[in-house]
Amino acid sequence: MRGWLIYDRMDAERNSAFIDWFLEESVSLNIDLQLVYTDNLQVTLRNGQVSVHTKQKQETPDFSIVRTINPLLTAQLEQAGITCFNNAEIAALANDKIKTHLEIAKLNIPMVDMHFQTSAPLPQPPLAFPFVWKTASGRGGKEVHLVENDAQYRLLQQQYAAQSVLMQQLATTPGKDVRVFVIGKDIIAAVLRSSDQDFRANYSLGGSASLYTLSMKEQLLVRRIIDHYDFCFVGIDFLFDENGSFLFNEIEDVVGCRTLSEVSDVNIVRLYLEFIKKCMQDTGCTQ
């Protein structure tokens, strides 16, 4: 079984330990996994057929683990007959926060009130200060701002004039969220992330983390999302309302695992590779 582990070159430098983890675990599972950089891939369309290959003309893989945010690349790989984890549909959903919220709302999942700005700027703030400003494509706590006054609002409108934006009501417990790690239809673990210094709870921004035990009510809520989509490996993030109940926040396609590794001994990479191997061996795999 042959696979590509696809990264942008710059991201690969920051995630070298995670990449090594993938490569080491793949050997023990008899998977021929090779690291491939996006700048080394070439996509062609000849006689109506799409093909993807490396500049060195490496043999086309059976599957690809796509660890870069590029839904179009994933779609091209799939059209070339390469099974992708996550698939193009999930990549397109998770990497557009507006699309994510619109789709998850169809499942009657609780979330904070928000306004979307996809074209002309809204002349007046649509929510009472303070509220959260996010670009639709941002991730890892980047391009996320707390808007506390009109001057900040005007500045952000200028700064992100060409981007789609979400403006969200600030949760009643800012600086606190839960990330649920999901592989296929299984809930693997959950991590509580919190920060006393920032309204964002991201571990990469200096927040703390601890293992979190999901209540039965929370598990059922997560499962309503899981059962509706063909996830491979994602993180689903939740905020808390004034009663401590979950509010959906976002889905991470290229989900980081640093927090989970810090607070548990879960071998998330091996579990993911075992899922991929089983899926590839199963003729009914829909990924």
UniProtKB/TrEMBL annotation:
Keywords in alphabetical order: ATP-binding, Nucleotide-binding
Gene Ontology BP term (one): SOS response
GO molecular function: ATP binding; metal ion binding; ribosomal S6-glutamic acid ligase activity
Any one Gene Ontology cellular component term annotated for this protein: cytoplasm
InterPro entries: ATP-grasp (IPR011761), ATP-grasp_RimK-type (IPR013651)
Domain of life: Bacteria
Annotated ranges, domain ATP-grasp: 101-277
Record's keyword annotation contains Transcription regulation: no
Signal peptide interval: none
Pfam families reported for this sequence: RimK
Name of the protein described by the UniProt record: ATP-grasp domain-containing protein
